[in-house]
Every structure is written in structure tokens, then in C-alpha cells.
Amino acid sequence: MLGDYRIQGRRATDIAADVERAVSAGRLEPGQPLPPLRELAEELGVNPNTVAAAYRLLRDRGVIETAGRKGSRIRPRPVTSYRDQVRLDVPAGARNLAAGNPDPALLPPLGPALAVAAAAADRSPVLYGQPTAEPELAAFATAGFRADKVPEGAFAVTNGALDAIDRVLATQLRPGDAVAVEDPGWGSLLDLLPAHGLRTLPVALDDQGPRPAALAAALAAGARALIVTSRAQNPTGAAITAARAAELRAVLAGHPDVLLLEDDHGHGITELPFATLIAGPDGRPLVTRWVVVRSAAKAFGPDLRLAVLTGDRATVDRLRGRQRLDTGWVSHLLQRATAELWRTHGARPAGVAEAYRGRREALLAALAAHGIAGHGVSGVNVWIPVPEETGVVVGLLQRGWVVTPGAAFRVDSPSGIRVTIARLDPAEAPRFAADLAAVLGGSAAGARQI
Fold this sequence. Notes:
This protein is α/β, with parallel strands linked by helices. It is built from 15 helices and 15 strands. The protein has an eight-stranded mixed beta sheet, with helices on both faces. Strands 12-15-14 form a three-stranded antiparallel beta sheet, with helices on one face. A two-stranded antiparallel sheet has the order 1-2. The protein starts with 11 loop residues before the first helix and ends in a 10-residue tail after the last helix.
């Protein structure tokens, strides 16, 4: 079953550590089955309960997955092999359309905002025991949530959207719980779930967001939580419309105990309106546990490492309690700088959404001229379904274009590639589309859906 490799250890922690080392070293491969509990216990001379405890540890750490009588096996993508680990080198002269970054030229200058924050710190240094959220930042964020009809809730600041999601999952779910997520979806999130020992239930989507029937199937399959991207979905650029939000709320209405997390990281870079799934017709939450997260990364710069969130009191209190025990709080220098950026540039800096829309639409139009379907109604990415990823990525690389293979974002969805348009000059779009058409040959028409 394991070839020449033999698992070692007498204690559950030792057995689990040995398997983890073997996975990291490539001696145990993704998908490889592990011995049955009693068989391994007999081989190691230990109690079967010891092996069961080791397997639980490995499952909780995202290294293996268990399927009842079908046994346990190394996850197809162990948490030790995260999706961002595989990156293509960018040859000299090639255009990097793979990074997923915003255009630095569209980010506001940080110097003036940091100077204001530093001056405030000199006048009134932040010391232990003070409130964790900067009042001006909280006021700006709360006003934005209220304007978008998000129900009244508690407030917190985290080190980015993924940090917020990480803390919510850690305090609300248990290893083995199932989480419904978009497919294709954010690679870091798809890695985070197994790191918590959580199971992924993929939910298909289109340009308007998750498909209601797919969400209903995931909830029927036992999803304890749902994570959705409101706008600028990574990698497809999908944005939840008002009509789709109403359909999804109708599905969620029968599942009030599901934890709902809305990631609105694109709120500063798209002109499309925000449509929440949380509030029912009376404006009150449909679910007991909910959180809406907004990151400063795309609009103001990834290095700010800051996100604001609101949610039900119990969920946010747990998050803040856990935060107090590790980082304590997010730097008030960064909070004050972000508040100053918000004050001087607005939640959506002028011209940014329009610039990204122009670049997306130029690429989509160029692709359509060659009969190639692309997706991207918001944000900085375009998703292009393709029959086979590796050959397309290599073929484009040979023509001077670096794109991201869709495997970094997919669970069960069809093949595709992600193209980051943030720095793509519209004048370049026809050449990219022509090169992609040449790589695809006559196969482009066969892949049109997300």
C-alpha cells in the first residue's frame, strides 16, 4: 500500500509527525491510501486507538482525508503543498499576467497618510489596554456597511481578509465540518480549509455569483458554513447581482444555523453595487452567525495588511477574544493611515474601477473576436475556460505571456486559466487574444462555461 515506505512511531503525535515528514519529502504522494487502523496498529505494536488518534491529528492538520469504510488517504492537495507554491518564472521581456496584484500606478501614495498617522502617534501613543479599533476607521467602515444595507453588528479590524476568515473558522467550526465555497475560487481559501481540518464542498458559479441549485446541494450535503465573494471574485471576476442575491437568500432562509461569511475584498475597485445575502426582506439577518469582510489590499495596497469586518456579536466577540491572545490588535499606525486614505481618496479611489473595467472589457472583446469566451464583470482578473491548462500555459509562455493555470483555483470545476488584467494595456489585448487563439487552434469553442 505504501511501497517501500514504513510508518514509524509509538505515540499518536510521533506517528502523525512521521507521516507529515514523509508527505513533505514526497515519500508519500497525494491520493495514496494509508493502512487500515488495525493493520498499522499491529505493525507498530500499539493500540488501535493510538493510530486512530494519529489519523485524527493528520486529518485536523489537513494532511489526510477520511471516508469511513473507504479508509484514509493523503489529500489530493495536502496543506503542506499550498497552491501559491507553484509559480512560473517570468522570462526577460515577458508580460506577467499571473500575479493577481493591483496596478501600483493606481494605488494612492502612502507617504502623506503614514505621516498623518505617525504625527497622531507622537501626540497620543497607543499603549496596552486601549481600544483595538481606531475610531475614525471604524466610523468610515460602519457608515459604508450601513449604506450597503448590511445589518447592524459588532466591529473588528484584522490583518487582511484571510486573517479574518481564518479566525472566524477557528472559533466557529470543528475539524471535519464541511464548508461550501465557490468553485473555482480563491486558492488561499481552498488551502486554509484543510489546514483547519475542514471539508470543502464546491459550489459552481457563473458571472452573477454562486448558482442557487449548487448552493442548495451543498447545504443539503451538510455544509456548516458558506463563504462567498461579493464582487471581484478571484479568479472569475464574478459579482453577485441583486437578483442572484435574492435567489440565494431564498435558499439560505431554510438554513438559519449556517455560518455565512461574505468577502467583499473588491469594494474599492469596482463600480458594481454590493448585494448582501445576509439581510432578509425586513432587513434582519437570515442566519444567526454572519460576517462581512472588506480588505484594503486592492484599493490601497496589499502591504497595508488590513481588513475591517462586521458581524453578529457572538461571532465577532470570539474573533476579538482569540485575537487578543496572539497579535493583540492591528497596528494603529496602519489603521490611522488607512482611515486617512479613506478620508482623502474615498472608499473607492477615483478612476480605479473605470481603469480596470476598461482593461477587462478590452481583453474580453479581443477574445470574442476570435470566438473565445472569457469571464470577468468586475475586479482585476479574467477567467478563460480552456480544454487543457498545461499546454495553453506553456504555449502562451513561449509567446511571451505568463498566466496562471486554473488548477490553482479549482476543486471540481472545468479547466481554465486566470489572466490578471491590472497592468494590461488595452492596446496589448488583441495580441494576447491572437496568441491564445493560435495556441488553442480549433479547440477554443469547446470550453465556454466556468
